[in-house]
């Protein structure tokens, strides 16, 4: 598919300079148009050569399209094109591979596309991905391995599985809900009991499969996907405890001059050009989770963090060339390392700012 220029982006030239509550929409549209220029360039149905990140970028497109019904039509063919063509760039079957987190990204992304389109093919695809993932639950430490052939137990694979199970519980018919809900609550309880969520409400990377002890660094995507899971679980159960726990995680993540935010409240991810095309994606799911939490359970801490980052990105990490909005990997700037993934992470931040201020 050839990306086409949206009507909105043709109107941008005069409005791009500002970054405030009145311009997140045009900034997001310009950032998304630029993200779409990577679509199908190396692999038909994917953005650039990226596999798991393309799932997130597809969900980001669906998210902005759900906010703007006139933009919704601009790239609407993307979902069916990805559905049909992306699997041929995977040496496995469909959207499955050897990594449970890759599968989780795709499963969750197809549900986001289902929310926009209400096309049951996308719901059924998400269910088939879920069925493959759920077959892997129950390592000797509980939970889900990162890779299908065992070894390390990654937090991200488990968070995505919990979010997918809870999201399915909210979307399948009522007679099918309970199995997904049981899987989600069991997964959630395991996740909190195994110790990956510290007393500081920061999530470590995973669990050592030999010792069953939490281990590893702290990454922004692990702070974000668990928020999505919490919002879906709160919806499915009516139990607001999930939102309270998510609020503690969001507070810890957004704390100024903390582990994740610098002294100006800007996310430190990718500072000093430190990210590759994997790490540059991590912040997208954080802004997605914060947006969902803010809409379900508003708090100025999170709203201010979202808008502060959207403004910093626009003021410090943007290069507009020929009306194309190139967004860099570090939101405090300078603009470096632009690719499809940096466009997608910036889009998640701008969409979050748009959604929580409109
Ligand atoms: C997006 O467009 C599709 C196709 O026209 C339509 O079915 C769907 O309802 C639209 N969604 C929104 C949120 O505008
Ligand atoms: C943990 O994973 C490693 C690497 O895959 C494997 O060699 C080891 O047998 C595993 N240990 C357990 C207890 O499953
Ligand atoms: C709500 O969820 C929390 C966290 O899982 C749990 O401890 C609590 O028992 C639940 N409350 C009810 C009324 O089910
Ligand atoms: C988050 O921090 C604010 C203070 O900044 C506090 O009022 C709130 O109770 C904290 N926790 C949650 C879950 O919102
Ligand atoms: C940020 O935190 C460090 C300690 O982690 C402290 O030394 C420094 O003064 C703080 N900076 C600001 C601006 O609060
Ligand atoms: C980036 O580099 C500067 C200069 O070396 C340093 O002061 C700063 O702490 C670094 N930022 C991060 C988040 O690592
Ligand atoms: C902005 O992008 C253009 C085109 O890629 C490039 O020539 C220029 O050097 C960039 N400017 C900055 C400040 O990065």
From TrEMBL:
Keywords: Signal
Signal peptide positions (record): 1-19
Top-level division of the source organism's lineage: Eukaryota
Listed GO biological process terms: carbohydrate metabolic process
InterPro entries: 6-hairpin_glycosidase_sf, Glyco_hydro_76, MUG_Protein
Recorded coiled-coil stretches: none
Protein name: Glycoside hydrolase family 76 protein
Organism, scientific name: Talaromyces islandicus (Penicillium islandicum)
